[in-house]
Structure formats: C-alpha cells, structure tokens
Amino acid sequence: MLPSSRDLFWTKHAQQKLIEYNLSQSRVLRVLRHPHRIEEGIAPETIAVMQRAGSKKHPYEIWVMYQLEKKKIKIISAWKYPGKSPEGKIIYIPPDTLEFLSSQKI
C-alpha cells in the first residue's frame, strides 16, 4: 500500500495535466494504489502505472508517472490514453510531457 496523500509531491506539470484531462487528485491516487498494470517509465528512474476506465464502447486508460524519493512520492505526470495501449511496449506520452521531462532533471 502506498503512503498517504501527505507523502506525495505534485509537480506543477502534473497539476496542469489534471486540469487538462479533467482528472482529480483522488482519481490519480486510486490509480497509484490499485494499478492494473505497472511498467517502467520513459524518464530515468520513474514508474508508470495504468488503470482502465471508460466504457466498453469508449475505453481509455489513465496513466500516472511517478518517482520514488526518500520519504515522498513525486507525481510527475498523468494523462489519458484513448483505447488500449499495447503491453510491454513503450507507452505513448504526449509531446508536451516529453518536452517537460527532457527540460527537467528528474
């Protein structure tokens, strides 16, 4: 089980993505606590977790990328992926997120 919400650090980028994709902090925490799939993140030393959402007719996935630090979990980004992403392959990350990750030292 992951630590409580007090032990989380939200980057400004992650907060902007919550607004952009109409996600709440509690929804992101639910994805962190009960992921359907866990993969290595695209940025160094990051983890990406996914949870399916939507309906059978309009499925999508909610992805969260985070980094484990000493006593906190740094939430780097969150996004919605339309449809079903292929397992074990590099996940699609929106271009603006990739630009942010390459400009930051994460």
Question: What is this structure, in a nutshell?
Answer:
Helix content is 25%, strand content 33%. The chain is built from three helices and five strands; from the N terminus they run βααββββα. Strand 3 and strand 4 form a beta hairpin.
Tell me what the structure shows.
By secondary structure, the chain is α+β, with helices and mostly antiparallel strands. It has a single domain (5-98), classed as Nuclear Transport Factor 2, Chain: A. 25% of the residues lie in helices and 33% in strands. The protein contains 3 helices and 5 strands; from the N terminus they run E-H-H-E-E-E-E-H. Strands 1-5-4-3-2 form a 5-stranded mixed β-sheet. Strand 4 (59-68) and strand 5 form a beta hairpin. It starts with 7 loop residues before the first strand and ends with a helix.
Evaluate the radius of gyration.
Answer: 13 Å
SSE ordering:
EHHEEEEH
Q: Number of helix segments?
A: 3
Terminus-to-terminus distance: 24 Å
The total domain count is 1
**Helical coverage, percent range:** 25-40%
What CATH architecture label applies? Roll
Widest sheet, order of strands: 1-5-4-3-2
Topology:
Elements lengths: L7 E3 L1 H9 L4 H9 L3 E4 L6 E8 L4 E10 L4 E10 L12 H9 L3
Parallel strand pairs: 1-5
Antiparallel strand pairs: 2-3, 3-4, 4-5
Features:
106 residues; globular; Nuclear Transport Factor 2, Chain: A; five-stranded mixed β-sheet; 3 helices; single chain; alpha+beta
